[in-house]
Amino acid sequence: MAVEQVKMVKNILTGNDELAARNRDCFETAGVLAVNVMASPGAGKTSLIVKTIEELSGRARIGVIEGDIAGRIDTEKVLAAGAADAVQINTGGSCHLEANMIQQALNNLDLSALDIVFVENVGNLVCPTHWALGEQLKLCILSTPEGHDKPVKYPELFAASDVIVLSKMDLIDLVGFESDFFYESVRALNQAAPIFELSCRTGQGVARWIDWLVGMKTAVNGSAL
Amino acid sequence: MAVEQVKMVKNILTGNDELAARNRDCFETAGVLAVNVMASPGAGKTSLIVKTIEELSGRARIGVIEGDIAGRIDTEKVLAAGAADAVQINTGGSCHLEANMIQQALNNLDLSALDIVFVENVGNLVCPTHWALGEQLKLCILSTPEGHDKPVKYPELFAASDVIVLSKMDLIDLVGFESDFFYESVRALNQAAPIFELSCRTGQGVARWIDWLVGMKTAVNGSAL
Q1: Cβ separation of B124 and A122 shorter than 8 Å?
Q2: Which CATH superfamily is domain A32-216 in?
Q3: Are B154 and A123 inside 8 Å of each other by CB?
């Protein structure tokens, strides 16, 4: 039974990868940069998306696919911030998004009218790592109140990410976050990913993130903003 | 294949429940209060356990079963704080603890020498909810920086918990946490669970939590500390 279980999980993941490849084709054909945003609940996924929409207002058309167990709070937030379009996925109970959910969301999103799509995954530092959605970039956010030891405890997401954001930098002096420990443990897992320190509340560090994202839009899609 | 998958998951959960019942028998026979501690990464699970160990020093013998994807940072922390015993479980990649992992941990824990056992689950606001471990109490911690909207987005854990701790109260004024929204959304899911507001950093609210826990030790096990 254990073997059967492993086989079935493998089958499901293979099916997911095939759908993810199709989603990726859709994004690439439309010249859209798709970013899979992964983090713990409350790390600041929506705040970073909202801030990015505001900073790129009039320059980039940003769509959002919102993944939540329940509710549509974040979809309302990103639309209020100026998202060009947004689709809510309620997973019901599932702790992560899967490629088939993105495929369904894409039926309700006109990619030809968008430049960047953020896929906000369910808040979870573990499970989303294993499910490709068709994104070109995996973004991991860690907030300073969560603590510097998280890369040691949850290594897979930090290892798999293309870019890492350390958020809530305005709180760093209040929460005992040890930057040296954090950087050493991330770099033991992932040498390549750039790390952006920022605070959506104060705006500190946001410009560097925006510049990098705009550069990636050109590098990945060959089409500048 | 979908049906087969559902059946298999049900079988696994049934097997888990049987093992959880056996674990619970072990705890109850030994007169130990077992608490399953669930929260997002970095919400303050270890901090609350450490604070509780310190506050009950000389009064209660506390054991800890630490669940992490990787590492043994928290086991070292709770032992340094004065835990009577601690066992580390590394799940390898699993996003939650299961009853069979607790069964194995119990082989390495002398329950007759303990009063309370905290089982610190993997940091995750979703998956641990579905897996009984044999605990008598389910404790959910939310930290103020995570935001007041989490009960709406992650309703299952808040609905299933016997007690809820709102942690990092020292940061509440800095992070825009709306208490009214939080209480209303929790109470829509769960009328019974007491909610303790506290800060392990400042000590604010900790005494009330300790008093309640000591009371539960007597109520659940019939044996006072």
Answers
A1: no
A2: P-loop containing nucleotide triphosphate hydrolases (3.40.50.300)
A3: yes
